[in-house]
Every structure is written in C-alpha cells, then in structure tokens.
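seq as requested:
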Amino acid sequence: MPKIETTRLYLRPYTLDDVDETAVILSNPEVMKYSPRGPIPKDKVKDVTQQILEVFIQHWKQHGFGVWAVVDKATNKLIGHCGLNFLPNSPEVEVLYRLEQAYWYQGIATEATKASLRYGFEEVKLDKIVAIAAPEHTASRRVMEKAGLKYEKDAYFYNLDVVYYALTRAAWQPDKSSYYNLQSS
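struct tokens:
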C-alpha cells in the first residue's frame, strides 16, 4: 500500500499494531465529540479502535485506497488518521480526518487532507471527493474550505444531519507549494 510524505507528516497504512496508540487518541471525548459514533465508553475503546482499524485495512484491500495513519515526522508519533473512504450506502468517496487534540489548529488536518485529495485525484483518478461534518463543527468546515472543497448542501449520512462539501477533479488545484512524495510499496 502506498505511503505519502508531506512537509510535516507521514501518511502510512494502518496495521493492527497501531491499536494501542490510536485508542489513546479515540479515548478523548473532545476528539470524538463530532464523530458519528460519539465518544467511546472507556471500557470499549480498545475493542472499538480495533474494529475501526480492521475496517480501514479491509477498505484498502477491497478498493485500493483508504484511510492512512497520520504520523508526525518530527517525533515519529502516530497522531491520528486521514484518507479516503466510501460514504455508507453511497457510491461517493469522502475524505475524512481525525487528529489528537494537541495537533488541532496547526494546519495538520488541512495538510493531510490536501495530500489525500491529491492521491484521490492523481492516483485513484476519482472524479469527485466529498466531505461531511456536523453543521456546528466549524473547525472541520474550515479544513474542508482550506483544502478546496465547497459547500454544496445539507445532507443526511451516518444517521446525522450534516453539511456536505465537494470537490471535482476538474475544479481541483494541486497545492504546488507544499511537499508531497508518494511511495508505492
């Protein structure tokens, strides 16, 4: 599976060895506040995290693209995830991201999202990528906008009312000012 290096990040495939590190991130109720599943009960975090990673790993095997573990290059620490995933009961592909709280508001989510979009348009040859968020999740909406996605409509996914943003390959502008290195395995 491919890996991506950006200015500050490594995006690499998840393995089940990542369960413990990822569980720490997903155990934070603030990190999970806007997640469709909501905060995870403490006694279920490890099991739920393993299930999530298994879904991400299977998605890669089945579709040839998916969600990466996001690693801080400076510390080599796993800090969250970002990547491409089919929306439930839909042919549409969403870009999604979730980061450890200490890494919010530093442009990390935008950097990872732009790399994921580039991979989706250049390598997977997707015609359109979407993103959804809770309407009140202004930080996530800002990431979408900075990455080039445009608000299109209110929608309903994951049993939630969401805002729906989209970007087509025709409208996409690669960020030539940022470092992007794709490594195929």
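The CA atoms of residues 27 and 43 lie 10 Å apart.
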